[in-house]
Design brief:
The structure is a homodimer.
Chain A: H1 8-22, H2 28-35, H3 40-65, H4 71-85, H5 93-103, H6 108-113, H7 119-134, H8 137-142, H9 150-164, H10 176-197, H11 201-229
Chain lengths: 246, 246
């Protein structure tokens, strides 16, 4: 007996179950970051590498925007570009992440060059951009659904980092404040789209696979960071070396 | 004062210097693999993940072949497809790697499915295939030049693995025997092409960057393996779990 497609509610439950198993809040690196167990160089490595992810999000969203068929859909998705690239120089998520990186002691030009990021970061982020560019619109939208899970991790991160790191200030973490409202708004839209359009078994399997893939993108970035800068701490040739490791 | 382009000999020396600093024979995972410091499950994880790399090499070579402009170049490059895909079922490098994987105790169908590989493996290998598909022919050819460095690592690997692992036989490692002659032949061709065609500063910088990128592709695969299966040994959700870790 072959099972038919799931109801929208069952599909949503299956999507949320992926987050409960695979979202990167479960990664040991995040526990250490939020728990105050990292030193300044390790936090710098996180900020530096994560900048590459932030900086490629608008490319990801623009490539999807270019394929969306209606003005309604494009207008809804366009708000993500405004959130990340801002409405004036120095505004938006990418600029706020640069401030975060500067706040923890990195040179802005070095961060923007991405010269010191880990290969694992680059390959994971590029894989995400490629998925959104090359797969169906449905899969591309589904891959954004990790935002369903992000408000929890952001709240943990901000409170944990402010409590534990003397070199982190509320201004440094200003990136995260608007994300607490932007991410749920974006996730609601994407979830509604997926609930409505993933109606066959094949489409439902594709959206579940896309969300697992995206969880892998986030998780493997932390694998690479943890390996290089925490345990065992083997920094690959050419990657950022914190002051205390020089 | 701006430096002009390097001579072919100086360019070759610069390429070889990249290998001396960044080739994955320097990675701690390889030292452990060759030194007999891994258990059977860790060797299985290596064979399983490396299969994905092997399986995508013909796709990489075919995408370059499709862009090469002359019959002479295509004929020379076509030998790589014959080496990897064979001339009859059960022959060629991909088939021999499956025998290696079976020889260390993995199920062939599981290996071929690539279901249990690390996300870090997939993203790194896909990044290599994308580079060869999307960048200039010169960069695509230069990215193959890690084969300049492979005979040494193969000799170390075969002798080390046979000496240290009771579950590894000469038949299991039959993959490597033809590589000892194929890799130098291929590397000589690619090196000759690069020496002849990378004549401007920009071209020379591009081929050096392509070789560094390829070293990153190999290195980051070992980072992911080492992190998941050796130190600290955090296997990501969904990845292969050896018998002794279940």
């Amino acid at each position: 007996m072959t099972a038919g497609p799931m109801s929208p509610d069952a599909l949503e439950a299956a999507l949320r179950a992926i987050g409960a198993e695979r979202y990167h809040n479960l990664h040991p690196f995040h526990r250490r970051l939020h728990g105050g167990d990292l030193n300044r160089g390790q936090v710098q490595a996180w900020a530096l590498n994560r900048y590459y992810y932030q900086s490629r999000i608008p490319a990801k969203d623009a490539s999807l925007l270019a394929r969306l068929p209606t003005a309604d859909l494009r207008r809804a998705w366009r708000s993500r570009l405004e959130d990340h690239d801002g409405t004036a120089p120095g505004t938006g998520g990418v600029a706020r992440w640069l401030k975060l990186a500067e706040g923890v002691g990195l040179e802005r030009a070095y961060v923007e060059s991405t010269a010191g990021i880990l290969a694992g970061t680059r390959f994971a982020v590029d894989a995400y951009v490629a998925l959104v560019r090359e797969r169906s619109i449905l899969e591309a939208i589904a891959s954004s659904l990790t935002e369903l899970f992000s408000p929890t991790i952001i709240a943990e991160r901000v409170s944990g980092m402010l409590a534990h790191y003397s070199f982190v200030t509320p201004e440094t973490l200003a990136y995260f404040t608007p994300r607490l409202t932007q991410a749920p708004r974006d996730a609601d839209f994407a979830l509604g789209y997926v609930r409505e359009h993933a109606v066959t078994v094949e489409q439902q399997e594709a959206v579940l696979a896309a969300l697992r893939f995206k969880c892998d993108v986030l998780w493997s970035q932390l694998d690479a960071l943890h390996f290089a800068y925490v345990e065992p701490g083997f920094i690959p040739p050419g990657a950022f070396v914190p002051d205390d490791r020089r």
